[in-house]
């Protein structure tokens, strides 16, 4: 995932974030369990708490409506703005009478809630999901080995560009790092800032660069260990990542530090930058008649000896351990994991996403087929910096990476500080 | 000649200041009439290349603004009336009678105001759960009244304290009881302050987001501020729809301000001429 956005969070006040963090604390969950019942009616009905707004919401509305027709329970969809949802999710989960189901992220984010015993064990739902890939099962399993998550969809990251612009400039998408640097050089000589980026308000976008360089240089296992606190950020292997980044740094759009990702997309579409390492949600910020002109290439290979890994953030559902109606909750999860439900979901939400079920058909756009093939061909999948670590570790990356982009020569000091900040997070 | 020049300069400067003031508002209104494709192609800062009012329809229906506005008014109107009513009573007692410990009470109320609301978010959320009010508009009304009361009492206290004692004495001689003095003498005299505070508190409560999302979690009960936030997408936001939603959400507060404008200004001026 990648919608971590400290500046919007600031809007809600520091304390709100504090509330989120504290609300999940053991002290308060204990306090909450002794609290009286809330106002949400129980008995038969289940509530699906969702952060999906806009077009994605209609996909979920369809899912809920179809499920209700099955007669296995009555679900109600309750949508809350993403920025509120992010801070309030721990409170929802630890309240005395929590909603039953939640849209959120797999992997270490779900695992962190599972560690606090807030999530429902859905291992029996997974017994019917034999067709799912081991990678999907992995990100849905917590550290004790039980499944706690049901994936709905994922998407990919890549260098997006406009086909018409690449044709106009007479350039080809690169495959290797050397070709990539040559491409940057060519674009720069034509007076176009080669690499677009949008870090104002959305500094997490820089983490895509770190993630990809790290999994290309050091491989996905090292990346995961690093993000889990088992490796150090001041390790020479991490410094090697930034050495590669330094080679591309002169080609970054100098204006990219000022504007947020959505404005950076506008710049890319207007031909003011050459390409942009971003997730497929960039298509949501693109005018409909321009989407056809979008294409992407895979993050170039740096070391052919390293197994190719790709970033594929996975979205889906998990359930509260305190649900009053586990049967209906699991029935909805089972339905949501089916081919039929996921095809309907993907077709009804706009945007470029891939259904999680390997047999479910995605949109028939060539771009989508290409993305799907890229993920299928990857030896390993990672998700995104904060999804593979935690929302708490993300700000340490934002600080380190934006500082690096400003002052690449201070890399030793930056990495030492990153390690110090990360240790504070891991100590909790 | 000189004075004419001065007047001209004054008007020119004031026009500039007004434009500076109005600029962001005009920008939002213009933004709200642009299409998504226009903004995606030209950016939020560019001059408009399109005109549409469909953004208002989208904000109204997709954003669920009708229900949200009703919820907001259901919270704001009772909360304003209750907090001002209770605040006026408290201020009346504290300012016109020798209540033991009145200074401490007032300081305590003021101290409560200095407390950043963020640190009591968790207690408020858990307490509303304990009382069974969590996720209802009652909880929101209670919280708004509770947190506003200290400040309103403090302001009204300052105002009522300065009313001449002779009026109250005259009323007492005429045989008015405490209740009558409050409703027939003090309250009418406090009207400018009440009107000014009413307009202010209406804006504050109507525009509040923090308490709303702390005690409410269901879409159908959310007031208009979280509904506006809901117009933001997970990654990508349609700024023109958000701008349209903002314009719609601003209408009630602007209406209240226009309606109370006269009182508001006289309320401010009362302190000035003394």
TrEMBL record, chain A:
Signal peptide: none annotated. It holds the Pfam family SBP_bac_1. This is ABC transporter substrate-binding protein.
